[in-house]
User: Fold these one by one.
Assistant:
Number 1:
Amino acid sequence: MPRTGRKGRLIVVEGIDGSGKSTQLHLLDKWLRSIGVSVFFTEWNSSDVVKEITSKGKKKALLTPTTFCLLHATDFADRYERNISPLLEAGYFVLADRYIYTAFARDIVRGCNPTWVRKVYSFAIVPDAAFYFRVPPDVGMARILEGRPKLKYYEAGMDLNLSNDEYESYRIFQSRIVDQYESMVKKDGLIVIDGTLDIEKQQEMMRQRVRRLIPAAKPRVPILDQKEVALY
């Protein structure tokens, strides 16, 4: 759906695990609030409506690709109806840590029909800015595995039978997700941010784009506070 019928702005971040997107969105959230912008933060797979059943399905390894897709779509639809859409209408800046592009990437890699997946999420509006944090799969993997001895079954893509080794399966799974994201850059207008750059540089690039969406009456803070970065 087009960017019509709403007073607020929708800003989303996408990328593989370990791309740094969540850190950057939290920094953007803090900055927007500091200059008086009304902000609402939402993240993928966080609806209480389906969280319990999704958790049970994962623990017992019972989720098929289609079931996985529909559960996440239900989660998204609930958050969209209860939070995202109403708050955009009310004039909020809604910040989403992952949006429909996560489903397009993961569900298609898991074997779901691309056209069908996009139809499932066809009710969702187009974001005002969708940032894709591009990092090599090996870089993202190194960040995720730092201090983590074990990967989760679905996180590693073990349900896809890519490899008997969970780390190799994870590497292949993430590489395929990267391929899907790259195919969406032009198709869906994703704004590419080099996720290997310094945190400060990435944040400033985001703020340059987001400033264009802030009403003229709102104050602007052009420089990233070094103390702010140190918190992450």
Number 2:
Amino acid sequence: MATIDDVGEADGWRCWLCDQPVDPDRSVNDDRGPSVDARITKRKAKAKKKALPAERLAHRACNTGKGGTEPVVPWGEDLFVIDPVPIIAAVERLHTKGGREIMCRCPREEDAEDVLAWIIDRLSRLEPELRVEGSIEAGGGQYLVALRA
């Protein structure tokens, strides 16, 4: 098991759940303080036969709030999206199957461009080993934001 400092350095001192900075100097008992989340996804459990889970940095409150349930990574509050897919599930499908994943719809092309930049940036920290390319596809008066692994 790694130390909080090791996990924090590896994750750039950002919470993997909410993507906000984690202050390494805060107490581990503080809600915004650092904690280590022993994250294991269905994909990783299957691949590793339930070996040691991946350790990720999280705020204490984010980690406690998640508990033993599947994590939910929120979409950015300032993004204008319609029918967004759950980010963790989409990332797991891209890992296991590759191919193309529609992430959401947007009413304007500018909104879709903002979403695409945000989701690629977010995934670069959420799953650094996953390489994705994004595209925006017009259709039916809306814009689809897609990722391809």
